[in-house]
From TrEMBL:
It comes from Streptomyces koelreuteriae. This is Xylose transport system permease protein XylH. CDD domains: TM_PBP1_transp_AraH_like (cd06579). It holds the Pfam family BPD_transp_2. It comes from the Bacteria.
Length: 430
């Protein structure tokens, strides 16, 4: 969130006490001032770390406008609902990538782990008759165990994460092909538990509007609470008008999305689950002691050790989170395709899932250099990736062009991240 920036004003006005001063009565600028002055105040309160996501939002709007101009079905309720479901599988994998990127590492195995989870579920449920709920638990446990395996080799034995997870990519992909057998594909029950993850919708209009209202209210209360804490401690705080403005913008977007979804089949279950995962992940990283340790480790390994942080334990935990969410993502991809197969470009276990997950995390604003980013950045990044895929699909453009465009967007995002890091002190490596 933004903080108020006000160094001393030459005119000795309300901001002359500096950014640490508490509110002292009505502002001469704000809601009571003219619109241009307030816009300048809000623009000045936006931190550098927030300008990246704002650029991504602007880019997403441009993408939507371009594809809508080329095909008027792009912004139809049906396509946007399908877009909301389509982002979930890749988005869940990308959230796991964020946890690893925050500690300045990379996990190249998430695509293979997602494929292994989908194959494990299909083999146990379809071939061996295991109940779906138990097969889901085993598949997720497989992802968690794989993450612990990677974390052990990296944190305890000192093998670089790049090497460990690259080896894992090959090992788990080979194991997936072995499990699936000669056919390479196992179809799952289209009416079953896993298939319903992406096919079920809450058709009652109240469901989508309730989620929009709860999300808006939750953001407002969290922002007000944070502002009150900072104000009481004499720290930089967000202007009251800024809180209301952001809440209003969020409400407009949330209720517009709810209205659009209700015009088709209602709120998708998959999208609701994804939003819950984002909220929980963000809370863990930003509001818990463990989350602060993750960001501290991303800021510098040696400094984290000196602060008493168990570096090895945190590293293993982050790879376990990555493996677990990769397994969840693989189940959602299998649900959407109603099959377990790594042989198609969209399937769990394919190289494109790995590339899209990393691209979604980085494009959304998570830094490859560690210590900066949040799970919510995935939502923006995966919307960009999936919007390009959806638009290209409607236009009948071949996959090769889509790959080139996605690669270009990813390169631009990484370049922007690298440029934003220029001039910062170089941080230590273990």
């Amino acid at each position: 969130m933004a903080v108020s920036r006000g160094g001393p004003h030459r005119d000795g006005g309300p901001g002359s006490a500096g950014p640490l001063a508490p509110d002292r009565g009505p502002r001469t600028r704000g809601w009571s001032g003219n619109l241009r002055e307030y816009a300048l105040e809000v623009r000045g309160s936006v931190r550098d770390s927030e300008r990246g996501p704002l650029l991504v939002i602007a880019g997403l709007i441009v993408i939507w406008c371009v594809f809508q101009g080329l095909d008027d079905k792009f912004l139809s309720p049906r396509n946007l609902s399908n877009l909301g479901v389509g982002i979930v599988g890749t988005g869940l994998v990308a959230v796991g990538i964020v946890f690893v990127l925050l500690i300045r590492e990379i996990d190249l195995s998430v695509g293979s782990v997602s494929g292994l989870a989908g194959a494990s579920f299909a083999v146990l449920n379809v071939n061996h008759g295991m109940p779906e709920w138990l097969a889901v638990i085993v598949a997720v446990a497989v992802g968690m165990a794989v993450g612990a395996f990677h974390g052990f080799f990296f944190a305890s034995l000192g093998v670089p994460a790049f090497v460990v997870t690259l080896a894992g990519l090959l090992i788990w992909n080979g194991l997936t092909l072995y499990l699936l057998g000669a056919s390479g594909t196992i179809n799952i029950d289209e009416e079953g538990l896993v298939a319903s993850l992406t096919s079920r919708h809450f058709e009652d209009d109240a469901a989508a509007y309730t989620v929009a209202a709860l999300g808006t209210a939750g953001y407002f209360l969290a922002a007000r609470r944070k502002r009150a804490r900072h104000l009481a401690a004499g720290m930089p705080h967000q202007p009251t008008g800024d809180v209301w403005l952001r809440t209003g913008l969020l409400a407009a977007v949330a209720f517009a999305a709810a209205y659009t979804l209700n015009r088709f089949q209602g709120l998708p279950l998959a999208l609701l689950i994804f939003l819950v995962v984002l909220v929980v992940s963000d809370y863990v990283l930003r509001r818990t002691r463990y989350g602060r340790r993750v960001y501290a480790l991303g800021g510098g390994v040696e400094a984290a050790r000196r602060a008493g942080i168990g570096v090895e334990r945190v590293r293993v935990a982050m790879f376990m989170v990555s493996g677990t969410l990769a397994a969840f993502g693989g189940l959602f991809v299998a649900s959407e395709l109603t099959s377990a197969s790594p042989t198609t470009a969209r399937a769990a276990g394919s190289g494109m899932l790995l590339i899209n997950a990393i691209a979604a995390a980085v494009i959304g604003g998570t830094s490859l250099f560690g210590g900066r980013g949040s799970p919510w950045s995935v939502l923006l990044g995966v919307l960009v990736i999936q919007s390009i895929a959806s638009g290209m699909g409607l236009l009948g453009v071949e996959d090769a062009v889509q790959f080139m465009i996605t690669g270009g967007v990813l390169l631009a995002a990484v370049a922007a991240d690298a440029l934003s890091r220029r001039g910062e002190p170089r941080r230590d490596r273990p």
